[in-house]
Amino acid sequence: MNKQEIIAFFDHMAPQWDGDMIRSDEIINCILDGAEVGEGKSVLDVACGTGVLFPDYLKRQVSSVTAIDISPEMAKIAAGKYPDAPIRVLCGDVENTAFDRKFDCIMVYNAFPHFPDPQHLIETLAGLLAPGGTLTVAHGMSREAIDHHHEGAASAVSRGLMSSEELTKIFAQYLKVTKSISDERMYQVTGKKI
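Above: the chain sequence. Below: its structure as tokens.
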């Protein structure tokens, strides 16, 4: 999996992304509850896409959102959505970006299989957490459904979603794991920086 191919794929998909999106508010709320996303928290939205979680963050009255996506087209759409909200959208590779702050909540939503080196990603993101902050990797569908979804055109730019047990072991090297779920509705691993 090569990052230039990932950028090209998501640039191509960006214009129709929102129209093709399937979302469950109930599952998203469950994920955000488990991630401790709430009032006054600073959020780093990793691989934010077109900003699909922005309205959810705003409803929860977070203090700020820093969103990053490697695809210029995805970032451009995201940046245009809430120009008056406390949301800053960056285009770049989160693993090679210097941030000027630590974050209360870091969210990787519906994006984890597109990162070539899961261990390096989790290590990098854990280092961006403020004390007591949470890192969450989550999907609004089951592991099996995600893998099936990526079988077609996305197969060249994704890898199989690792089991929640495998991801929990990686998280546990850096954080205290507070949630690990993989069922027919969703997938979520959350860890807290103690």
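The chain has a mean pLDDT of 92.
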